[in-house]
Each structure stands twice: as structure tokens, then as C-alpha cells.
């Protein structure tokens, strides 16, 4: 991370040496081994707080963790959407996701639960242990706590959307904790914590943007807008009041961007979205931080299978590739579907920088790092330090357009936000007067599917809207009954939630009952 996790660890180690230096030889002999350092002994100085927060950021990379052969955890949120398929078919768990037959043993489901709760556990440690650290600059402390609250809310927001009622853990736990085997909290209670955490983070004195990759104010406000938008829809159905909250919060980011276009804006080109030198800047409001010194970019499963698009020659996994139907659903002339200029590529350069060759099908270009892998006439560095986007300004514009339309129909401001997305795609947009509230609603949804694809967002849209884009008709089907063309299987009511992992439920009987439709 640009957060310099390694340097923080070194500082903590040095801090430990200085602390031990206060004791005589006899004291040293009765000290606990450094490997047995406890949270109570650790949180002593400001550098400890910074290092602890760095560990929370580091744990957000769980989504790139392995999930069996040719698969990563993040594919959980792509395989279910129907916008992708696979060229390998060698991972049975991934195949079960594509086929909509996942169950409590599916490794991606288990890993995602564990990963999110590890982020939550680490954030809880920071929130509990950092406040008593003295002496410590209060502004530094406030920002650290604000960042930890954002990261905890980020994890809970994903968990509640994936599983519904989940355990609500807000304090560090040990085997002796009274709530060590917690039951599941109501969905509304989880959302209350999410909102409360974000409102506290909003007051933490964070900068509007932070090129180091730490949580910034724009990310907090954008996330609040997204949370309110989700609460307005299923399953809480809070309606108009929350659409307005969403629109107003998204508008705060848009207003700042309009006044400071060199700080927050859309990138001029789609290549900028995956340009290593532009991470944490302009359009990227929040990203999972990647650096090969710690952990490089983990989106390689989008590489085509056994095609020489990188310096390593014929490789890649092709375990996530676009469905032809989804690729073909882009409007004619949409720059996002243009080879190498948009979010897809249909040809590339042999071994990254050699002779051009045809790929034979479209593949995802959105996460392709040309600096690392090579480009026309330029050899790759072989170091993929590209971050993974979580919140882009493009999403804020679409959140606002959707929410504002639900408040009072297609206003000029909502139309302008929507049109900016289409303008960058070089698409003509009908005049404002040609839209009704209903037609504008679906037009914004289409842009969400085409602009935000393969960023682990589409599945959450499907769940909150109870609607799915039909690539063949260009319209929206009801969630239940929609046939994913990647599997030719219809979505069922049970698919609105994931199953809880079998082992988790065996370890904690208080999690019962299992989500409807899945075996215990």
C-alpha cells in the first residue's frame, strides 16, 4: 500500500525495542516473548495506532485471496450476475456459482464471510484500543478512528447485502467474551451501525481526496449516498425519504467536484481508469491498495486463457470472461466496447509488446495494467501495482441520477449527471423532455450495467432492485425467473441471499436458521 505498511511495521518493531529498553536484565528475563504480544501491550504509542489501521486496510485484500484452482474470492460477486462466464471450468466451486447451484460449502462464500469479519475484527480493535493512547495528537487520532469506522461499515455493508441478518459485533472478542457465539442481528440494526459509522467518519477531518490511498471524505460521502440508495430499495423499502438522502449526499460530492474539477472528475479516457500512475486520483475515490512489495493486483483471472497478452506468454486463466451477449448489449458506437479504448479488448500484442494478434473474443480490459504487462512497442515492467477500484466518481453520478429521479422525476441535474456518463462513451442522449420517470429510471440502470460492470457492483444492484438487465431485450426482468445466459438457469427467490457457511454454523449454533432454500 502507499500507506507504507512495511515502514509502519518497522516503526512498531523499533517502538518495541525502545519499550524493552526501560527494563533491567532481570525484568527482561521475565518479559513475555515478542510473539506473544497482546493487544493491551501493543496499543501504547501513535505508531501502534497507525500500524493497526494499516492492518485493517491490508485485510481488505481478502477479496483477492485464492478460492481453489484458477479462482479468487472476488469472483463470487461476478459469477452470479450472468455477465461473465468461464473458459476453464476446472474449479467446481466457481462452476457452482456460474450455475447458480452454490451451497453452504462453496469456498467463495466461506472465504468472503471470513474475510469481511476479519476486517470488522481488526477495525473493532482500532476503535477500542486507540482512544486511550496518550500522548497522541487528537486530530491524528480522530482521523484514524474515522478511517476505521469507514472500513468497518464497508465490510458490514457487503455482509448485510450478501447474507441479510448477520452477527453485529462491535467490540474485540476473545473466547471468554459473553457474545463469543453471537446470534444474527436484524437487517435494520446492521444498517443503523453502517450509517452511524459513516456519519462519524464524515466528521473525522478527512481530506476530500487522499492520493496515498487512505479513506477520504469523498469516499465517505459517496458511500453514504450508496447506502441510502440501497436502503431505499429492497429489502428495507424505505422509499422516497431515503432516495432524497441518497441524492443529497451524492450531490455534495458532485458540487465539490464541479467547484474543483482538477481534484474530482471523470477521467478523460477509459484507459485512465486502469492507468497505474492515476490510482487514488480524480475519478478513483476509494480503491483496494495493491503494491507488489506487499501484494500485487489480483484481478488476473480476467486474462484470457492461454493467450499471450502479457510478458509471460501464453498464460492467464480465463476463469472470468464476458458473455458475448453482455458485450453485444452495448449500443452501437459505445466507446466502452471499442477494442482497447474502452473496458474490453478483442486484440492485443504478442507477449504484451510484440506483433498484434486477434483474441477471437472480447475480454475485460478494465483491470489490465499496460505498464506492467506491456503495450505496443513497450515491454512490461512485470510489476502489477494497479489498485482495484471500489468507488468511482462515475458511480456517484449514476447514484445521484437514479435517486434524484425517484424523488421528483428526471430533473435537469439528474439528466446532466446521467448524460456525462453517456458523453464520455460518445453516445447521443435524447433530450430531457423525452423521458418519463419510468423510462429515465431504466435508462440509468442500463448505464449502471454498462459503466460499472466487473467492479463487484452489479450483483448488489440486482439484489436491491430485484431487477436484472436482459441483454437480449435491452429491458429489465424481475429478479426471480430471470435466466442468466451464462448458465441458462433462472434466478430463484433463495438467490437473493447467500447461504451461511456450513462450518460456521456448526461452530456457532446461534446463527441458525440457515437462509431460506439452502440446506443446514
Automatic annotation (TrEMBL):
It comes from the Bacteria. CDD domains: SusD. Residues 323-518 form the RagB/SusD domain. Pfam families: SusD-like_3, SusD_RagB. This is RagB/SusD family nutrient uptake outer membrane protein. InterPro entries: SusD-like_N, SusD_RagB_dom, TPR-like_helical_dom_sf. The keyword Ribosomal protein does not apply. Belongs to the SusD family. The keyword Signal applies. SUPFAM superfamilies: TPR-like. Keywords: Cell outer membrane, Membrane, Signal. It is found in: Cell outer membrane. It comes from Aquirufa aurantiipilula. Residues 74-229 form the SusD-like N-terminal domain.
Amino acid at each position: 500500500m502507499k500507506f507504507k505498511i512495511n515502514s509502519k511495521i518497522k516503526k512498531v518493531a523499533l517502538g518495541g525495542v525502545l519499550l524493552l529498553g526501560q527494563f533491567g536484565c532481570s525484568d527482561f528475563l521475565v518479559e513475555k516473548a515478542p510473539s506473544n504480544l497482546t493487544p493491551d501491550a501493543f496499543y501504547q504509542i501513535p505508531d501502534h495506532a497507525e500500524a493497526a489501521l494499516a492492518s485493517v486496510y491490508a485485510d481488505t485484500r481478502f477479496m483477492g485471496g485464492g478460492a481453489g484452482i484458477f479462482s479468487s474470492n472476488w469472483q463470487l460477486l461476478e459469477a452470479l450476475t450472468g455477465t461473465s462466464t468461464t473458459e476453464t471450468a476446472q474449479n467446481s466451486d466457481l462452476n457452482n456459482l456460474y450455475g447458480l447451484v452454490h451451497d453452504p460449502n462453496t469456498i467463495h462464500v466461506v472465504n468472503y464471510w471470513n474475510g469481511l469479519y476479519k476486517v470488522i475484527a481488526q477495525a473493532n480493535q482500532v476503535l477500542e484500543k486507540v482512544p486511550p493512547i496518550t500522548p497522541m495528537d487528537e486530530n491524528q487520532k480522530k482521523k484514524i478512528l474515522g478511517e476505521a469506522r469507514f472500513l468497518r461499515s464497508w465490510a458490514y455493508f457487503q455482509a448485510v447485502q450478501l447474507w441479510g441478518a448477520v452477527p453485529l459485533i462491535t467490540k474485540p472478542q476473545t473466547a471468554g467474551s459473553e457474545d463469543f457465539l453471537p446470534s444474527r442481528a436484524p437487517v435494520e440494526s446492521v444498517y443503523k451501525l453502517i450509517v452511524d459509522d459513516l456519519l462519524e467518519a464524515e466528521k473525522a477531518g478527512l481530506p476530500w481526496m487522499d492520493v496515498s490511498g487512505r479513506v477520504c471524505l469523498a469516499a465517505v460521502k459517496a458511500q453514504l449516498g450508496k447506502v441510502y440508495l440501497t436502503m431505499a430499495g429492497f429489502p428495507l423499502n424505505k422509499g422516497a425519504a431515503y432516495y432524497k438522502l441518497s441524492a443529497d449526499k451524492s450531490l455534495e460530492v458532485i458540487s465539490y467536484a464541479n467547484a474543483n474539477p482538477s481534484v474530482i472528475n471523470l477521467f478523460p479516457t477509459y484507459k485512465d481508469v486502469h492507468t497505474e500512475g492515476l490510482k487514488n486520483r480524480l475519478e478513483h475515490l476509494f480503491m483496494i491498495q495493491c503494491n507488489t512489495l506487499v501484494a500485487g493486483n489480483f484481478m488476473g483471472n480476467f486474462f484470457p486463457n492461454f493467450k499471450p497478452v502479457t510478458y509471460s506468454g501464453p498464460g492467464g486463466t480465463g476463469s472470468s470472461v464476458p458473455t458475448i451477449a453482455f458485450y453485444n448489449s452495448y449500443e452501437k458506437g459505445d466507446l466502452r466496447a471499442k477494442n482497447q479504448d474502452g473496458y474490453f479488448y478483442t486484440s492485443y500484442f504478442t507477449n504484451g509488446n510484440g506483433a498484434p494478434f486477434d483474441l477471437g473474443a472480447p475480454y475485460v480490459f478494465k483491470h489490465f495494467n499496460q505498464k506492467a504487462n506491456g503495450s505496443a512497442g513497450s515491454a512490461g515492467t512485470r510489476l502489477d501495482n494497479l489498485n482495484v477500484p471500489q468507488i468511482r466518481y462515475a458511480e456517484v453520478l449514476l447514484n445521484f441520477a437514479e435517486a434524484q429521479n425517484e424523488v421528483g422525476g428526471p430533473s435537469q441535474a439528474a439528466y446532466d449527471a446521467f448524460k456525462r456518463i453517456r458523453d464520455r462513451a460518445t453516445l447521443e442522449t435524447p433530450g430531457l423532455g423525452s423521458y418519463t420517470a419510468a423510462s429515465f429510471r431504466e435508462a440509468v440502470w442500463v448505464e449502471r450495467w454498462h459503466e460499472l460492470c466487473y467492479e463487484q457492483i452489479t450483483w448488489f444492484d440486482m439484489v436491491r432492485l430485484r431487477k436484472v438487465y436482459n441483454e437480449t431485450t435491452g429491458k429489465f426482468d424481475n429478479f426471480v425467473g430471470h435466466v442468466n445466459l451464462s448458465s441458462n438457469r433462472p434466478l430463484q427467490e433463495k438467490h437473493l441471499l447467500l447461504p451461511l457457511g456450513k462450518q460456521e454454523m456448526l461452530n456457532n449454533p446461534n446463527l441458525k436458521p440457515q437462509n431460506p432454500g439452502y440446506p443446514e
